Amino acid sequence: xxxxxxxxxxxxxxxxxxxxxxxxxxxxxxxxxxxxxxxxxxxxxxxxxxxxxxxxxxxxxxxxxxxxxxxxxxxxxxxxxxxxxxxxxxxxxxxxxxxxxxxxxxxxxxxxxxxxxxxxxxxxxxxxxxxxxxxxxxxxxxxxxxxxxxxxxxxxxxxxxxxxxxxxxxxxxxxxxxxxxxxxxxxxxxxxxxxxxxxxxxxxxxxxxxxxxxxxxxxxxxxxxxxxxxxxxxxxxxxxxxxxxxxxxxxxxxxxxxxxxxxxxxxxxxxxxxxxxxxxxxxxxxxxxxxxxxxxxxxxxxxxxxxxxxxxxxxxxxxxxxxxxxxxxxxxxxxxxxxxxxxxxxxxxxxxxxxxxxxxxxxxxxx
Length: 367
Fold this sequence. Notes:
- By secondary structure, the protein is mainly α.
- It is built from nine helices and five strands; from the N terminus they run βαββααααααααββ.
- It has helices spanning about 10-25, 50-55, 90-100, 125-145, 145-150, 155-160, 205-225, 245-265, 290, and strands spanning about 1-5, 30-35, 45, 325, 330-335.
- α4 runs antiparallel to α8 (about 245-265).
């Protein structure tokens, strides 16, 4: 059976899950959604049972009730390095949200004490607090600088953590040739030869590159719960002109993942404890599955970030190329001084995101 959904590609994507769930009782186990002209293989195939389970597993938590609008003023708390542009009530509300999204619910470090020393909230002695601070910067960076990929939907800590201290689908190095390194330092995953002969000028691709490219595409397909024609036209996989717009979105997504791994997670190597390291001693990194969890849009496109202004991000609130400093035993993120020589930069209050996507700061080269 084929479902035809009129309108743009965006409309069928938004309606996909509920349509499949509603028709599950009448259709077979596999449902097909036509996304382009017949004869070009522009269709997506979904297992009804998988979709039903996926919808149940991708429900966001209830929104914490908003607090009254209050002007941004001096904070009563010490060692606040990031949330300096929200009011104290919104700061407290955001901390409660972090606890619900990330911290364990039982055990010796449940709730706030997962990151904080109960008798000294300003202390950075627990590594999870140092990591959480940097991850907050990362979330704001994604929501502002990577809107070509996340649009106005954005992300929150819950997008990846889902109520757990460790996000799903983290990965570690196993060798220099593993395909997952395309999410870190590879810029040559595209394989397109113009000659069948081993000529370096005309055929720069090796069998190993081809294998890595295939593995990476399968990895992304599973991460989004879709087949190849979600992005590609089956008659000409390499053609951008004949691909859907989702291929461009996916391109930005891959560049975004490289940016986050290279500039946010990998620099935390000295902060993560030995218990979090991989077989080669490296710290954890993310991939597409970490956010998407097998769904074409994380949480089926639910916009959680609109309810949490502290996560929106704003121009110049922080440096996107921030570095980690250890100043007299205290971890400090970002430039030590601004252009005027002041020790701390306090940005203006945030406003909800709207309008088109700005240009993204992304690594050059490769997909």
